[in-house]
Amino acid sequence: MTLPTILIASTPDQAEVRALLEHLTEDEYLLLDDDWLQRNEVVEWRLEQDGTQTSRLGKTVLDFEALQSIYVRPRHRSLAGDRPMPNFLRPHPSVADSDAAFVQAEAETTLFAILSQFKKLWVNNPFNEKLTENKLYQLAIARDFGLRVPETIASSDVNALQEFWNKHEGEVIVKAVSAYPARYVSDGVIVTRQVSSNDIKLLKTSTPSVNLFQELIPAILDIRVTIVGDSVFATAIHSQEGKSPLDWRLDYTVPFTTYELDDKTLTALSQIASRLGLVYGAADLRIMPTGEPVFLEINPYGSFFFIEKLTNQPISGALADLLRSGKLTRPIYPAT
């Protein structure tokens, strides 16, 4: 039996995964989807007295020497009516709802013990995810590498928020601090919008909570930069021509075109991704009327399929080549 060289921890109903699989042959990969246990497939980890570790997924005994890469793109699902969370192994349907969370945790803990033996290419390493997805940490890292970032405050102090709003004469936007709001609220999309004077008044009478305010960055373009290993695909989103100039996610009718970033920005983005422990990332920037790019954030699991479809950039092919080779030129540092 031919051993797989790529392990894909994801689900084939995601557009990105379907696009990726079109560039791979079936003998190259093992697809570990979140229905694995529901099909009565095996997850097994063993430790022998002599220190030998053996891992089995289904009928495959994993050979970590043959394996070149692991691609991680979990699907978010709700479990027993709870909020959507990343799912790697859902419990069998026969498990009672009251026990489902525990059973899933047991299975996924075992899975991560298996995967922790792998020391080669992760896209991306889930053990780094928690710190990496912190938007505030990202901004500080981007500033350290020489990119302009929006002046930002995240605070529960209403007076401090109002002072920030006054300083920028109301040219301020509010957005979620959390990278994945869908995990916590029923409406997964929290729209980036401008803060009004009425919003400030409401804050003063609301329950204290942390809000993220940023200076509003005037833009001629929004840029989505898809980083795939050593390859970079930049796309101009002509957001100012549409109905949602502050949040292009609400209007995909505007033109999406390929874009050429300057070398300084490309280098900085690669350094940011490396420092955050990311092999793959989808970064969002804005181009000011002066032509200066401004870094907003980078998503470790940001979508690329819609970019590929709208611009014909070969992103899924580049991802397949990266996973097949298992090779990356730039360094990857663990998030600390």
| N-to-C series of helices and strands | EHEEEEEEEHEHHEHEEHEEEEHEEHH
Integer count of domains? 3
Q: Biggest sheet: strands side by side, in what order?
A: 16-15-14-17-18
Overall pLDDT: 91
Distance between the termini: 40 Å
Q: How does the overall form come out from the CA principal axes? A: globular
**Computed structural class:** alpha+beta
Beta content: 15-25%
Assembly type of the shown chains? single chain
Q: What's the number of extended β-strand segments?
A: 18
Question: Helix segment count?
Answer: 9
What are the low-pLDDT stretches, counting only 5+ consecutive residues below 50?
A: none
What are the salient characteristics of this protein?
336 residues, alpha+beta, D-amino Acid Aminotransferase, Chain A, domain 1, 5-stranded antiparallel beta sheet, 4-stranded parallel beta sheet, globular
Architecture overview:
The structure is a single chain. The protein has nine helices and 18 strands. It is of the alpha+beta class and 336 residues long. It has a five-stranded antiparallel β-sheet, sandwiched between helices. Strands 2-1-6-9 form a four-stranded parallel β-sheet, with helices on one face. A four-stranded antiparallel β-sheet has the order 10-13-11-12, with helices on one face. Strand 1, helix 1 and strand 2 form a beta-alpha-beta unit. The protein is globular and about 65 Å long. The model has no long low-confidence stretch (mean pLDDT 91).
